[in-house]
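Example record used in the benchmark description.
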Amino acid sequence: MILSDHDIKTAIHEGKITISPAPNYDEQLGPCSLDLHLGNVMKVFKTASYPYLDLKRNINFEELMDEITVNDGDPFVLQPGAFALAITKEEFSLPDDIMGRLDGRSSLGRLGIVVHSTAARFDPGWQGRAVMELGNLGPSPVILYEGMRICALTFETLTSPAEESYSKSAKRKYSKQEKPQASKINKEFS
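Model output (structure tokens):
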């Protein structure tokens, strides 16, 4: 079941869901979601010396990306066809019986901005900042601003608490992120 605005506020007030900085409900709360803001750290791909990315090769994908820090309120230009990893300003944690789902905002989608190309689910037990996979499918560059509302987070209750939540799983790769991290998929092949 998806949490309503009332249930989201209750879960945050009771400390079941934690969000920092504390949300401004007048600005961020929708009928069944909570908007999150664009953080100030992005990662973009450098021009690679590889003709393709082989997921079985021992490549450090972090070395293929540049990290960009955007100052408070400054612009980040997302060119047509470009891809960037970005992080939310908010850090959040989920209990063992609630999962989160991140969606892009319709107003940005209508400009061609894809906020999450995949991996929009946050498992029960998640802790950290959400990393978004931004893309520009439109014909024009779009300027995004650090601190703008970028995505909406919905919360869904599980039928029972997860036996092995994300924070307790040995398989987790991206827990407690403070900055966007490049793909770690090649670790699955070792």
